[in-house]
């Protein structure tokens, strides 16, 4: 169940964080690996009302010559990596070279991508998954609100660095970066076209 045990008398967890141990260590988060004190010693700043997490997820795109780069997307409202109840969010070409949120009924260039993303996400709960991720250090409510505020109708291109515009990696990276100020890409050693152009993504500021 990936539970953690907290002793209210001593005010500390006495079991390791079951999620993203290596991620905490690589970020130099001295509390993350074994977060003995609740909420990083600052329960006023670090709160998590429902205990769910959000992730920037990356999966390989297969081409005729092998991996043609990685495609990134957002998941929030997840109990753990691969949680089938997590909400998968993907922004891509919704027609006429414009970017918007893709759903299961989207046709054209992005047709079927949400289903493929969902399968890649759920594969993270099994060994041998080709997907990778970084956890977004923000509440899932905040991540969902930021994703909801992505401005639709922006120019879409497959390779923004060359063609201009933005793509799915730009949008996913922008959401993750806006949520926690962290990297707009997953540290997996793979090319993620468009992640470097995340600052081009526009948001509705009233959200």
TrEMBL record:
Residues 197-207 have a biased composition (Basic and acidic residues). It comes from the Bacteria. InterPro entries: Rhs_assc_core, T6SS_VgrG/RHS. Residues 176-207 are annotated as: Disordered. NCBIfam families: Rhs_assc_core. This is RHS repeat-associated core domain-containing protein. It comes from Colwellia chukchiensis.
């Amino acid at each position: 169940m990936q539970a953690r045990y907290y002793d209210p008398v001593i005010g500390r967890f006495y079991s390791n964080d079951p999620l993203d141990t290596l991620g905490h260590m690589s970020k130099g988060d001295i509390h993350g690996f074994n977060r003995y004190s609740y909420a990083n010693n600052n329960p006023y700043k670090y709160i998590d009302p429902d205990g769910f997490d959000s992730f920037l997820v990356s999966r390989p795109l297969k081409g005729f010559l092998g991996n043609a780069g990685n495609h990134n997307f957002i998941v929030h409202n997840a109990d753990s990596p691969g949680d089938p109840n997590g909400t998968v969010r993907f922004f891509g070409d919704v027609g006429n070279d414009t970017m918007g949120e893709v759903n299961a009924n989207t046709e054209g260039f992005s047709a079927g991508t949400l289903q493929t993303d969902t399968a890649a996400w759920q594969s993270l709960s099994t060994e041998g998954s080709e997907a990778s991720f970084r956890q977004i250090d923000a509440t899932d409510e905040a991540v969902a609100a930021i994703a909801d505020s992505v401005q639709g109708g922006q120019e879409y291109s497959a390779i923004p660095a060359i063609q201009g515009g933005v793509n799915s990696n730009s949008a996913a990276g922008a959401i993750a970066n806006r949520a926690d100020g962290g990297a707009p890409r997953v540290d997996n050693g793979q090319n993620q076209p468009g992640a470097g152009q995340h600052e081009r993504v526009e948001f509705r500021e009233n959200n």
